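Comment thread on ticket #2218

A.B. wrote:
> Attaching the input chain for the structure job we discussed in standup.
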Amino acid sequence: MSLVTPDFGLLVWMTLIFGIVFFVLAKWGFPVITGMVDKRSDRINESIAKAREAEKALSQLSERQAQLIEQTRREQAQILKEAAEARDSMIAAAKEQARDEASKLIQQARTQIAAEKESALRDIRSEVANLSVDVAEKVLRENLSTEEAQLRLIEKMVGEVTGTTKAN
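C.D. wrote:
> Ran it. Output below, let me know if you need it in another format.
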């Protein structure tokens, strides 16, 4: 028996054993192996599909997040704009109110000054009148200290009243 060329009987037996093993494997082994490979392939395909869906969902979430951030920025800008407008309107209203108050105070001060001026003028006139009466009284007392001067004054006044003036 040579190692390179086997005998005819050995070949027959080897072929028969190979056929039996092949038949057993084909009947019970290959279906199990191919079923496992198919299951594994299905699981891999399913995982790939889920990964694609997850990637797609992540992409949509990322887009949604960007939209929310942009919307939030717009709302923030709008709120800041409204706050600035409210601040400006409040400042303008406060300035207008201050102007009105200042105008009222100035008008009241002018009215008060005018009233005090009138009062002072009345007081001055009264004082001047009192001083004039005092001075006139002193002058008349000095001029009318004699009886003759008193008679002349009476005649002069009677003459002015009656329209005739006597010459002295």
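A.B. wrote:
> Thanks. Noting for the ticket: The first helix runs from residue 8 to 143.
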